[in-house]
Write a structure and sequence with these properties.
alpha/beta; six-stranded mixed β-sheet; 18% helix
Length: 428
């Protein structure tokens, strides 16, 4: 069974408690505290496994909990840190916070391994708390708790080209003809249930990856049928190929089919309509000479909008080569960077409350300078030039208490806030 989404619970390990003990040896009076530190709890790490292509395993196991660190021992013995729990996922898996739907990590491109939840730090033993006035401390630091979270895993296929269209228009037949993919093909009146990937090899290093996106139906953007399951696989594609039954062998109108599919794409995500599109007018081998030419009708409807129409027969292969080279040359004009979803959810803020270490000071120029290690780290991985990245940055300032502290420091609208070389004007 193919599975492309799953909900799971993840929890990192608790740090081991520090130990309380005192050195007791013959001829060593008043040996002093010698309680060791606890070990760190295990992290939760996600890692791409090239051998996986579904999320089926996560339908069987829903909870992933790392082990706790060992407590410290006497004679300054340090407790063992727990092993990290590595969760293997297929490439293209997007990890989201289940409650908010915000992206935590996208396991695609160069991101092959990422620590999602850090284990709790081990507590200090009582040997750390001896002072000139307290030489026999009878307490140690407990280990810090781990982090826990419900996450949604979504597998979004990684393909350059997505084949879209209603069921039974020939998408699977086309993919099987032009690539190494072997989807099940039959005269189904419902739809293929699994997305299939195929590598199109045009020779001399030219080619691309094509995906047969399962047949969409009207209302898919509202989740009708398996609409959302299918539509998520289109989000990474650079070019969309509408495959339509130009011969109307089942009484469907190919022009209306294209309009309906585009309506569903726009309702799901308006950005999808900005992707370049071409039309594969399929089943031309069963178009008969009498009456109007349906391919010419499709051209008149869509080529004025810059959408190229290619008449093909996926069964006989007629016109397929022209379609493939047309798509390949279109791809060469586009940005080749893989579509990777930006981080929107900062897991490091879990259980942190407003206790983030930072300072708010006003310099001689009247600017409000905010500094702190987590702020510097956050700015390092956040793309402030994008809308999502800037909203993520604003939410960080609010949830961490920085905005509240700026107001307490007397900031006014129009004042400048400076963070590690970046300057912002403050407005409510």
């Amino acid at each position: 069974m193919f599975a492309d989404h799953a909900k799971i619970f993840i929890k990192s390990g608790k740090g081991g408690d520090g130990h309380v003990s005192f050195r007791r040896e013959l001829y060593v009076p008043c040996g002093g505290p010698d309680g060791g530190d606890g070990g760190n709890g295990g992290d939760i790490i996600f890692e791409v496994d090239e051998g996986l292509n579904t999320l089926t395993d996560f339908r069987q196991i829903h909870r992933y909990i790392a082990k706790n660190g060992e407590p410290g021992g006497k004679k300054r013995c340090h407790g063992a840190s727990a092993d990290n729990l590595v969760i293997k996922v297929p490439e293209g898996t997007v990890i989201k916070d289940f409650e908010t739907g915000k992206v935590i990590a996208d396991m695609s491109g160069e991101n092959r391994r990422e620590t999602i939840l850090k284990g709790g730090k081990g507590g200090w033993g009582n040997m750390h708390f001896a002072t000139p006035t307290m030489q026999a401390p009878k307490y140690a630091q407990p280990g810090k708790d781990g982090q826990e979270l419900w996450v949604q895993l979504e597998l979004k296929v990684i393909a350059d080209v997505g084949l879209v269209g209603f069921p039974n228009v020939g998408k699977s037949t086309l993919l099987s003809r032009v690539s190494n993919a072997r989807p099940k093909i039959a005269n189904y009146h419902f739809t293929t249930l699994d997305p299939h990937l195929g590598v199109v090899d045009l020779g001399e290093g030219a080619g691309f990856v094509m995906a047969d996106i399962p047949g969409l139906i009207e209302g898919a953007s509202q989740g009708v049928g398996l609409g959302h399951d299918f539509l998520r696989h289109i989000e990474r594609t650079k070019v969309l190929v509408h495959v339509v039954d130009a011969a109307s062998t089942e009484g469907r109108d190919p022009v209306e089919d294209i309009r309906t599919i585009n309506q569903e794409l726009g309702a799901y995500d308006a950005e999808l309509l900005k992707r370049p599109q071409v039309i594969a007018a399929n089943k031309t081998d069963v178009i008969y000479a009498d009456g109007d030419d349906p391919v010419e009708r499709i051209r008149q409807e869509f080529e004025a909008d810059g959408i190229r129409v290619y008449p093909i027969s996926a069964v006989s292969g007629k016109g397929v080569k022209e379609l493939l080279y047309g798509v390949y040359h279109l791809l060469q004009t586009l940005d080749q960077t893989l579509v990777v979803f930006e981080k929107e959810f900062d897991v490091s803020l879990l259980n942190a409350g407003s206790n983030l270490p930072y300072t708010v000071e006003q310099n001689e120029e009247g600017e409000f300078v905010v500094e702190g290690p987590r702020i510097e780290k956050m700015l390092g991985y956040t793309n402030l030039d994008s809308e999502k990245g800037f909203l993520f940055f604003q939410n960080f300032l609010k949830t961490s208490g920085i905005l509240e502290d700026l107001e307490k420091a007397g900031i006014q609208e129009g004042d400048t806030v400076r963070m590690y070389g970046l300057a912002f004007d403050y407005y409510k």
